[in-house]
User: What shape does this take?
Amino acid sequence: MPGATPELISPGSARVAAARRLARRNFRGKERLFLAEGPQAVREAAAHASAAGATLVELFTTVEAAERYADIVAAARTVGARVHLADEAVIADISTTVTPQGLVGVCRFLDTPFPEIVAARPRLVAVLAHVRDPGNAGTVLRCADAAGADAVVLTDASVDVYNPKAVRASVGSLFHLPVAVGVPVDAAVRRLKDAGVRIVAADGAGDDDLDTELDRGTMGGPTAWIFGNEAWGLPEETRALADAVVRVPIHGRAESLNLATAAAVCLYASARAQRTDGGCRA
Assistant: This one.
């Protein structure tokens, strides 16, 4: 830091060891803490708070990063987070990225109880059922945020949303909208239907394609999209829960779309339909 000789935290510090353990799911669940890496994620974490208080509770930063991102470090201190100066070796030890950016935050879990999401009468929801790849989960969350979704739900068969790769892939969107975790898919569907939300399963073998749904005018009401596993899609018992099973039309010669791309297309189709005349957001 300019004008000071900061004391760097020791690599053998108990705080460093505790942060390092958060790369493992069982420790994250036990402590209800997770890691947010890089300036974008840490900035969003510092700006987020819940009933439990500030989300960002601790920040590890190199001296260079503290100078470059002085506003983020100041925001962390403002919300009461402990700030530790560390050398690059310590940051690399805590980080799960190949090229760390010098900032690693320790954050409180921020998932929202599913009943609260339903009680808010959501109009657009992304339900991740059987999604196992953390990068895909984080990217779908980012797409849902960009499309203006009201919530994201990860079922009990899906990946941990606090996996460092999922947090990175969300690019800060994890801190922007309510996220419920560990909800059985049948319970999620039942409660959303009771709240007047139409359930649409996205599946390459769907009976109708998205263009047909849009032409029929069926996409303007409250909608929850169910997205399935990256490799084998949705099982039949999950498809059977939906009000409609819809495929994204392939107009060219591509064999298929990956999960995150298909999710973006579906969520934006709903977002546009809901904002047209007669839509639930018009």
Summary: Residues 275 and 282 are 4 Å apart (CA to CA).
